[in-house]
Amino acid sequence: MQTLAQTLKQQAVNPALSQLLLTLAQSSVAISQAVRHGALAGVLGATTQENVQGETQKKLDVITNEMLKDALKAENTVRALASEEEDHIVEVGDSGEFLVCFDPLDGSSNIDINSLVGTIFSVLPAPEGEISEQSFLQKGSEQLAAAYVLYGPSTMLALTTGQGVQLFTLNPETGEYLLTNEAVSIPKDTAEFAINMSNQRFWEAPMQTYIADLLLGKIGPREKSFNMRWIAAMVGDVHRVLSRGGIFTYPTDNKNPDKPYKLRLMYEANPMALLVEQAGGKASTGYQRILDIQPEQIHQRVAVILGSANEVDACLEYHQQDYSGEPEL
Ligand SMILES: O=P(O)(O)OC[C@H]1O[C@](O)(COP(=O)(O)O)[C@@H](O)[C@@H]1O
Ligand SMILES: [Mg+2]
Ligand SMILES: [Mg+2]
């Protein structure tokens, strides 16, 4: 089986980018080991700190963030990084062509129940000159590479450098990622949706109506029965979408008027949107292609609807209708 390094070579990926991706992959092997040791390594549970988003940091959020930061500081390919667990950007080197955004531990509420977690990466070109937060505010379509690692029964890496999506499985004996799917393709149609249903009463009318129609199954306008899954780790849900199709959404809600969206654009939505599009799927806010959004802040949040192309289109049709004359749901 082909290794990650061999695959990058075959794709003729620029050597500096290859080196960076191999470093990120290597760090994820170390994270995978930390995650696997769980309580034995004393890494479970929460810290007393909060991140910039006001969320209590888990010990592993902090540990994995430090691991990635240290690995990137030892690199000469990266100018600066932006992380979910850092209030501001962190400059890591004077030379280098890249900026990296990451969510070091996605789905961290799953860690204490020994369920799926992951890491998400996005690589952007570094502009010339001084680096500031502004340098990161590039559209998702500018990403040079995007990847996630899923720490599940096996550890898997999904990667795109703009040449489709490849899936690698970690050989735990050798610490090497081996190519196990060279061209991921998301089926266009699906009968599976993923949404946190407990927020139903807080959604906008289009999402309320769309999900209500899915729940009606064969007797509803869709004339088809749908199943539901929710892993509470975007990496896990997106991996299922890449593996067998589906629609995944964390839509706009008015639960907390100051926070109408949950997922973060720069290190959750953008990298996942690139992976999904590269695998033949679609990713939208309901009103705009995610990869076309002009970011305004590194920690900005966004509504996400992604997955099987025809199902995302079906959901988007609901967003084009006018609900103003209808009674409130
Ligand atoms: O707990 P909820 O509201 O279901 O939200 C789950 C969502 O939150 C996230 O866990 C956010 O990620 P973090 O754990 O990195 O903060 C997503 O991965 C997931 O889709
Ligand atoms: Mg996350
Ligand atoms: Mg996280």
Automatic annotation (TrEMBL):
Q: Where is the Fructose-1-6-bisphosphatase class 1 C-terminal domain?
A: 186-319
Name any Gene Ontology BP term: fructose metabolic process
| Record field: transmembrane | none
| InterPro entries given in the database record | FBPase_C_dom (IPR044015), FBPase_class-1 (IPR000146), FBPase_N (IPR033391), FBPtase (IPR028343)
The compartments listed are: Cytoplasm
Task: Name the enzyme group at the top EC level.
Answer: hydrolase
Catalytic activity reported? beta-D-fructose 1,6-bisphosphate + H2O = beta-D-fructose 6-phosphate + phosphate
Which residues are Mg(2+) 2-binding?
A: D103, D106, E268
Q: Where does substrate bind?
A: D106, G107, S108, S109, N196, K262
Q: Which branch of life, at top level?
A: Bacteria
Instruction: Provide a Gene Ontology MF annotation, just one.
Output: magnesium ion binding
Q: In the Enzyme Commission scheme, what number(s) does this protein have?
A: 3.1.3.11
UniProt remark on cofactor binding: Binds 2 magnesium ions per subunit.
Q: Which stretches make up the Fructose-1-6-bisphosphatase class I N-terminal domain?
A: 6-182
Name the cofactor(s): Mg(2+)
Q: Which UniProt keywords apply?
A: Carbohydrate metabolism, Cytoplasm, Hydrolase, Magnesium, Metal-binding
Q: Specify the pathway.
A: Carbohydrate biosynthesis
Residues reported in the UniProt entry to bind Mg(2+) 1: E84, D103, L105
Record's subunit section = Homotetramer.
Give the record's family classification: Belongs to the FBPase class 1 family.
Report what the protein is called. Answer: Fructose-1,6-bisphosphatase class 1
Q: Which lineage is the organism of this entry classified under, starting from the top rank?
A: Bacteria, Pseudomonadati, Pseudomonadota, Gammaproteobacteria, Alteromonadales
